[in-house]
Amino acid sequence: MNDRAALDCPAVSNASRSRPRTLRSIGLLGLAVVVGSSALTACGGDDSGRLTIYSGRTKELVDPLLQKFSQESGIKIDVKYGDSAQLATLIATEGDKSPADVFFSQTPSGLKFIDEQGLLTALPQSTLDRVASTDRAADGDWVATSGRVRIVAYNPDSVAGTELPSGVADLTGPAWTGAVGISPTNGSFIEFMATFAAIEGEAAAKDFLAGLKANGVKTYANNVAIIDAITRGEIKVGLINHYYVAQKLAAEPDAKIAVGNFAGNDLGNLVLVAGAGVLKTNDQGDAATKFVDFLLSDASQQFFATETKEYPVVSGVAAPDGLAAFDSLTGPRSAQLEVMDLPAVQALIDAAGLNS
Amino acid sequence: MKRKTAGVRRPTLLVVASLVALGFVSPILWLVWNTAPSSVIDLFADGTLVGPLRRTLTVALGSAIVAVISGVTLAWLVARTDLPGRRLLAVSAPLPMVIPTYVGALAVVSGFASGGIIEQTFGATPLPRWSGPIPSVLVTGLLSSPLVYLPTLARLGQIPQSLHDAARSLGRSPVRAAITVDATLCASPIAGGALLVSLYGVSEFGAVQVFRYDTLSRVVYTSFESFDLPKARAASVVLAVIAIAIVATERLIQQRVTRFSLPKGRTGVRIPLGRVRWPIAAAAFTIPALSLLAPVGVLVFWALRGSQSRIGTVTDDLGSATTSTAVIAVSAAVVAILVVLPVARLTTRRSRWATLIAGACTVGYALPGVVIALSMVTLVLGSSVLDRWYQTMPVLIAAYVIHFGATAVRATSDAMTAVPDRVREAASLLDASPWRRLIKVELPLLAPGLAAAAGLVLLATVKELPATLLLAPIGTVTLATRLWSTWQSAYFDEVGLTAIVLLLLAGALTWVLTLRRLDRA
User: What's the helix, strand, coil split of chain B in %, to 5?
Assistant: First the structure.
């Protein structure tokens, strides 16, 4: 290998020759980065005079509504979209330096979490009074903006609507062995189980989960996967939120899927809500409350009914086609719960072996 | 004399590299600092974490094996043979990395599972229900195989013909000579790529979630969803410890791998495959077909099926999402390379410090993005100097670099090692300034390795989601956030469209930034 030095020396001159091209492209890239980044940063603009909304509801669902608010009120808005639980954690992590003024959450648990951290301020009574007392936080710090209902979706080819059980707990029985689908990591399912534990007690919740497991329940990554499995005939029924069925049927009118309810005030009929609250870090004064009021206006409530197929929470606004009125729903109301101990329920779900 | 010529003056380089490493580990240090040791012990006390720990190790090891097999095979066929369509293969091989694992995994389920698209369309026998370790490992391994493919391809491009000729003169056939020489000289980048895949497997969450395989990263995710922050942090600390163990294991392997500095000379040996080249091409193309076309095909199927009507509206932001994704990804790639250069330079010296510093820059890759992002939030907002930069581009880019810098460190230091000391020595005789020597002599020789490093950071960045959602300037939409958002809203036609734009953009960028340069080398 002694001749390696001889091989190497030409390499030096080769390298020098190709230098300008390499250096120039590095330089150009660097320039592009600087220009591009500053252009993007400039788009962010400064925060003064703009209402900052953290939204756990997706852009596809609520952007038209938020733009309408901005146009009608003349209030400029900045919106950060994300997962409700992660945005709630972000707000808690940011603490008193949070740029957020309003939190618009997909889930009650996200609002409950930041409320427990003392990060919300009380809403005016006139805002709270737009909804029933069962659909707002007991301390008046947040309010429901639309409703979702837990249902049992079924495949009408394999189950007749009349065969459905009267209570969600019956799904642990022999008639439903290997026929039930759940998504144990889905936020709504965890909230459902937390309500179960709060109302019936932890022991009952534990027994229910163990019963499902023993009965061969099938677990899925999310609600869409459950819908998919029902229409494919892999399972007969699944525990999900009502609007997934509406979405599926809107896309595929002859899909093998239908909505079933349990009887009366059964836990399986739990009413979950999306909601909004004003943060202590709000520096835009009344604009934040105006936004919450806008979400509770008749026109916005109508938007939820027709566009996202959710239940309006303001009385007098009609529910989506084919659904009963919101105040006639008989299931327990999530907003009312004092306690929603998600970590404890998560531990129960893990211990039941539903995640492995 | 030898010491002095080894490069930029020792203390300066060591100080610079240490500062870089400190930046890389700061979120991890913050995490450890804010986690009570008792909470980590509690996790194991009731035995609930033993299973997730075992499954995490299974995914880490299994996906590394899958990725090495597919990545090395493809790189070698592209670089060393006259395979028909090898240009197309070269471009398509790195692309699976931009498909989010949750998309890949759910596509597999809805395509191949019982009652799925394949059964509906072709009446084929239903496959068993897809869950557990095998699909988790396959999807994670195939989608992360570019971490092996690109560094290996870069190294193959650096190996001069003279070495192959030497092996042949010892009486070996062209194929055997090539395999012997290439296997020996590529061992280091392959081990490095396997390391990165393992770390990715540790952090990976999408596929294991869909396939219901309860790993530690899923524990972190579900703990965040249920607001159990102490548990999320404790599980993240365990992930960091596993990452350190994996990095240490790889160091041990690397010590057994002989390092060669490559002589300069004409590169690009090609072996004619003869009549078997068509069957081999068919076999080779099944890898990108499986990992690229299968998910995209299912998305297109959904798109066609679900386009008649839908709930809500789709905002017209595909164009701006494409622009910001391109700017962000290229920025992150360039910044990452510049930042890790001193670290990589230091690793050409085999000192304990160099090993420690390079390792420190690698661990962050094994942490879920949301953990890095939340640590950055606290660090940035907690400093009265940095807080004005919160939710701006520089902080977002910094988060990407910390998270994905590992990929750049490995590829860059492999490239550095391949520059012969004698070149440096010869250069130092001609030119006194070490920095000028770095720019004039070493950088051009490093070009293929740097290009591979840039490509890896770029591919990781374009699909990054959690840190983007939390840290991006408010209002920023990227292709990854759009993919997630349309997915959450069940707008599958938009999911399909966004995924296709993401693939095209990633293909174009990797071509410009990486593959074109590897080809020239």
Answer: 80, 0, 20
Nearest to A234 among B115, B391, B489 (CB): B115
By the 8 A CB rule, do B215 and B227 touch? no
Rg (CA), chain B: 23
Tokens at residue A71, please?
């146009």
- Note the pTM of the prediction, 2 decimals: 0.87
Q: Do residues B103 and B295 lie in contact, with contact meaning Cβ atoms separated by under 8 Å?
A: yes
CA distance B212 to chain A (A): 7
CB contact (8 A) between residue B330 and residue A252: no
Radius of gyration over alpha carbons of chain A, in Å?
A: 26
Write out pLDDT tens, residues A24-49.
555 566 666 555 555 555 444 445 68
Distance CA B210, CA A189 (A): 16
Do residue A33 and residue B444 have CB atoms under 8 angstroms apart? no
Triad A176, A177, A181: Cα angle to 5°: 75
Q: How far apart are CA B88 and CA B421, in angstroms?
A: 36
The label of the residue with tokens 């460190």 reads: B409
| CB half-sphere exposure, A339, CA atoms < 13 A | 13
A7 and chain B in contact, CB less than 8 A: yes
Under 8 Å between Cβ of A195 and A336:
no
B152 vs B455: CA distance, rounded Å? 13
Give B369-415 pLDDT, tens digit per residue.
999 999 999 999 998 899 999 999 999 999 999 999 888 988 888 77
CA separation for the pair A52, A47 (Å, rounded):
8
Among positive and negative, which fits the CA dihedral B492, B493, B495, B499?
positive
Cβ neighbours of residue A70 under 8 Å, at least 6 residues apart?
A76, A77
Tokens found for residue B337:
């390379």
ipTM: 0.88
Q: Are A230 and A237 in contact (CB under 8 A)?
A: yes
What φ, ψ does residue B131 adopt, rounded to 5°? -160, 170
Output the furthest CA–CA distance in chain B (Å, rounded).
Answer: 75
Residue from B474, B488, B491 to probe the interface with A (highest A Cβ count within 10 Å): B474
Cβ contacts (< 8 Å) between B474 and chain A: which residues?
Answer: 44, 52, 78-80, 99
**Distance (Å) from the alpha carbon of B282 to chain A's nearest alpha carbon:** 32
Reference B26, options B240, B345, B336, B242; nearest CA is B240
Q: Say if CB B349 and CB B26 are below 8 A apart.
A: no
Nearest C-alpha neighbor of B447 from the set B501, B366, B520, B507: B520
Q: Which two tokens stand for residue A94?
A: 């940011």
| CB B63 within 8 Å of CB B197 | yes
Provide φ and ψ at B160, rounded to 5°.
-80, 155
Q: Give me the residues paired with residue A121 across strands.
A: A278
Consecutive 10-residue averages of pLDDT for chain A (356 residues): 36 40 57 57 56 95 93 96 95 95 94 95 96 92 95 93 91 94 89 92 95 93 85 92 85 87 92 95 95 97 90 92 84 77 87 81
Q: How far apart are CA A321 and CA A309, in angstroms?
A: 8
Residue at token pair 């659904």: A323
3 state SS of B106: helix
Closest CA to B284 of B76, B452, B511: B76
